[in-house]
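Key result, reporting period 2: structure in, sequence out.
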């Protein structure tokens, strides 16, 4: 079921001949030869095999996946069979990654002169105008997120656009496999498989999705491959073990006292960071929270006033236009430092980075490797990462993380089994169509890996809850709380049109709170939580985008602000400030601290 790709299926010369001539000629001019990741994966994709490609950052994984898609579309056009709808769905865990990929794919298409091949991104940032254009004329390659793909597949009018879908590419697969967003995506993949059946699409013969998973840091590979394709399906595993040279350092601001006076550690960290920024061309500084990014960004600007315009803050609560401007400046080499949370953690092309600094342990080895891979982002260059401990306990965690990074001991991915909130959303989405029976819905979700062992009794309990609110409410309030019902033909149907509206507005598994838009003059800076704004009065100062702003007024979920200069600001708090500790890393920290304690006890006894 899972075959390791030990030797490429084609020699390089045969691989060039297998590609569409124009595509092969362009690749020869641009790159001269295939990188190991590309040589291993492209023949499998061309042969129609699903592939999990595990390869270091900067090794050409994304291009490996899309060369197969470009080849498929070019040959279809040459045969007069270019699909009018979506041939490839590319899913990423980040909106910024989706936007970046769209830009990067348009470059080779421009060089090839293939203006006939349409690429479009559909995320929460997509404007109403662009959404309407995509409905009128679907792209050949849709760049999106798990939530938006689920939204599309839950709208009957959108289904015909997917009849020609051949490829599903999942980037940064490790970031989806370990949470419920991955479960949502894998159920959506099974719904895509259903659409491709002759009965649903009217096309024959039946086709299956070619699923391509991309990741730089993921383990165990067999489990993740099963997650990607679903139980019982074949998947090729291409693991490129070629490691980039890396230099990993741990910095401790502590000296003689494990618990120094308040403010001592932060002052030393900022002083050392300032010295580092003056030495390096470009530094990427990761914090574990958005609040931390805002605070450190502002304090670095205050510490280095001569670099104020060259230091920026980047996180998901900033407005899209602000984020894109920072990313573009970073790629052009115009910034000395960017302080971010997780928004620049994964495959966005951010140009040449000298050093990656992580303030506090990143709570996982895979995450730390992902971050350090942002420096020296090309084969042959050395990645340089510095873990900065914030206290004595964090120092132990940083030391263990650095040691495990050096040995490349990855945290095993823990996949969520039977997430019932995802199941409930799926059943409501299927009820919108009114053409699926409970038995068919049960069979569909069981074909996805997260629900492979779903018990029918548990499925029926969730269905009963959706039909009437559960045992406590269904007797008297079914008309109010019921979301779905089974009609006379045995099909799942929605109870009212409002159910579909509520479903479309709330798709996903990311917990959210009410947000208030922050507007400086005519420009949107970003968003902060409504509860935070409620605690402020006009005239109060807070940080956003690494800048101090003063609240003028707040109305209709919009806070109007002005620049506050050097006033002392309040740091916003976001609900997203939650970071779990990897279980493998936690176990190793416990083991090391136990060993240190054993060695110290005899010393204390002797003293």
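The corresponding designed sequence is given below.
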């Amino acid at each position: 079921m899972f075959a390791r790709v030990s030797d490429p299926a084609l020699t390089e010369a045969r691989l060039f001949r297998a590609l569409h001539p124009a595509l092969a000629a362009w690749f020869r001019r641009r790159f001269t030869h295939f990188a190991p990741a590309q040589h291993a994966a492209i023949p499998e994709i061309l042969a129609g095999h699903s592939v999990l490609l595990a390869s270091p950052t900067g090794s050409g994984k994304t291009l490996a996946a899309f060369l197969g898609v470009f080849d498929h579309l070019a040959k279809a056009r040459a045969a007069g069979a270019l699909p009018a709808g979506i041939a490839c769905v590319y899913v990423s865990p980040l909106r910024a990654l989706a936007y970046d990929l769209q830009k990067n794919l348009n470059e080779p298409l421009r060089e090839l002169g293939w203006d006939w091949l349409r690429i479009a991104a559909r995320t929460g940032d997509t404007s109403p105008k662009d959404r309407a254009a995509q409905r009128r004329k679907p792209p050949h390659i849709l760049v999106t997120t798990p939530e938006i793909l689920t939204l599309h597949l839950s709208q009957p009018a959108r289904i015909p656009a997917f009849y020609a879908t051949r490829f599903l590419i999942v980037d940064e697969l490790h970031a989806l496999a370990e949470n419920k967003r991955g479960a949502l995506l894998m159920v959506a993949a099974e719904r895509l498989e259903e659409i491709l059946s002759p009965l649903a699409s009217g096309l024959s013969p039946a086709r299956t999705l070619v699923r391509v998973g991309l990741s730089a840091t993921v383990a165990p590979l067999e489990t993740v491959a099963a997650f990607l394709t679903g139980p019982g399906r074949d998947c090729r595993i291409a693991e490129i073990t070629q490691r980039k040279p890396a230099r990993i350092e741990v910095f401790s601001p502590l000296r003689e006292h494990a618990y120094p006076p308040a403010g001592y550690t932060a002052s030393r960290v900022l002083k050392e960071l300032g010295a580092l920024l003056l030495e390096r061309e470009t530094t990427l500084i990761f914090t574990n929270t958005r609040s931390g990014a805002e605070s450190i960004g502002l304090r670095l600007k205050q510490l280095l006033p001569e670099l104020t315009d060259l230091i920026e803050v980047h996180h998901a609560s900033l407005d899209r236009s602000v984020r894109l401007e920072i990313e573009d400046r970073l790629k052009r080499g115009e910034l000395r430092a960017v302080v971010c949370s997780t928004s620049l953690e994964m495959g966005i092309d951010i140009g040449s980075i000298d050093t990656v600094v992580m303030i506090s342990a990143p709570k996982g080895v895979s995450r730390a490797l992902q971050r350090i891979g942002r420096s020296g982002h090309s084969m042959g260059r050395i990645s340089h990462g510095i873990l900065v401990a914030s206290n004595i306990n964090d120092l132990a965690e940083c030391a263990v993380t650095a040691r495990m990074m050096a040995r490349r001991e990855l945290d095993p991915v823990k996949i969520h089994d039977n997430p019932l909130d995802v199941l409930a959303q799926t059943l409501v989405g299927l009820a919108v169509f009114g053409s699926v029976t409970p038995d068919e819905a049960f069979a569909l979700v069981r074909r996805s890996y997260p629900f492979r062992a779903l018990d029918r009794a548990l499925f029926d309990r969730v269905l009963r809850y959706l039909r009437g609110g559960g045992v406590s409410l269904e007797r008297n309030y079914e008309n109010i709380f019921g979301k779905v019902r089974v009609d006379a033909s045995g099909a799942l149907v929605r109870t009212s049109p409002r159910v579909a509206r509520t479903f479309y507005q709330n798709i996903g598994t990311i917990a959210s709170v009410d947000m208030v838009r922050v507007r400086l003059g005519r420009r949107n800076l970003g968003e902060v939580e409504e509860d935070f704004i409620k605690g402020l009065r006009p005239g109060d100062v807070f940080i956003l985008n690494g800048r101090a702003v003063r609240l003028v007024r707040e109305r209709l979920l919009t806070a109007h602000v002005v620049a506050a200069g050097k006033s002392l600001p309040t740091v916003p708090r976001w609900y997203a400030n939650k970071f779990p500790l990897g279980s493998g890393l936690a176990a190793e920290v416990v083991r090391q601290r136990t060993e240190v304690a054993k060695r110290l006890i005899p010393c204390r006894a002797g003293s």
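Residues 365 and 404 are 7 Å apart (CA to CA). The longest helix spans residues 583-606. This case is discussed further under Risks and Mitigation.
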